[in-house]
Amino acid sequence: MSDPLEVLAYGADGSRRPRAVRLPVDPFDGQVHEAVLHQAVTTFLANQRQGTAKTKTRSFVTGGNQKPWRQKGTGRARQGSIRSPLWPGGGTIFGPLPRDYRRAIPRKVRQLARRSALNARARERAISVIASLTFEEPKTRRVAELLGRLGIDDRKVLVLTEALNPNLLLSARNIQNVSVMRYQDASAYDILRADALVIEEPALGALEPGVEASSIAPEPAPRRERPRKDAAPKAAAKAERKAAPARKPAAEKKAPPRAAAKPHKAEPAKKPAAKKPAPKAKEASPKGSKGKSGKKPGKKE
Length: 301
Fold this sequence. Notes:
By secondary structure, the protein is of the alpha/beta class. It has a domain at 1-50 and 105-223: Ribosomal Protein L4, Chain: A (3-Layer(aba) Sandwich). 24% of the residues lie in helices and 11% in strands. The chain has helices at 34-47, 107-123, 140-150, 166-172, 188-193, 201-204, 231-243, and strands at residues 6-10, 19-22, 127-130, 157-161, 178-182, 196-200, 208-212. Helix 4 links the parallel strand 4 (157-161) and strand 5 (178-182). Helix 1 crosses helix 2 (107-123) and helix 3 (140-150) packs across helix 4. The longest helix has 17 residues, at 107-123.
């Protein structure tokens, strides 16, 4: 079993106590199950969907009962309806239809996810324990000043109370990124969505004093942001480059002289080819004369 987790404790007016407090081992055992957290968060978000999105298929679009033109002879592609998904104003292919996105999760898995979320925030020092908050009437300024003394007025805060506190709820509902609910009603998603948790001491029961408050970080870790590049180092480097003596330009390298081109030898002139004598025309034999054999060609004896 890991060592008990300790967090800072404050009074009802926001003053820090000299010693921290130890969180109870149940549920703060220091174990974080990421897979269970993922399952709980995705289930919670899926259950928030209404599932009312709907598009019309070609069977729900008005019109299109008649064939726009005959099948053959027009030169155009064959069409059976003007409400085809290929036509403007036609139906939608595979569009969303009303459905139920609700998913179930076992009760013990949901409880384990809640424990893991609380442990994750406790290990990040993002939990503050405060004395019981009593409001005689709704007062937004009092809540804003209290968050400022705790140093979490610029973060997303979740205040968990022991019981339903209507005056505190009305006092904090007009402040951006501040939510109030009972400690028993907080889910894993609510805990992970907040950057800082403020829990009333009676909601956790009797707490034992811990180490001195000075040995614990006074504020929860801020939200991670992308580091911004500072322009000061760039300006200093630019000034150093200007102050440095100018370097002499390097002597240009001369290209090696090219070898003299060899004279091109002229090819000997070719003699003109002798013309072949034209073939002599065959003398036409007189009509009625026969060949050497005295027989007409093409006939057999």
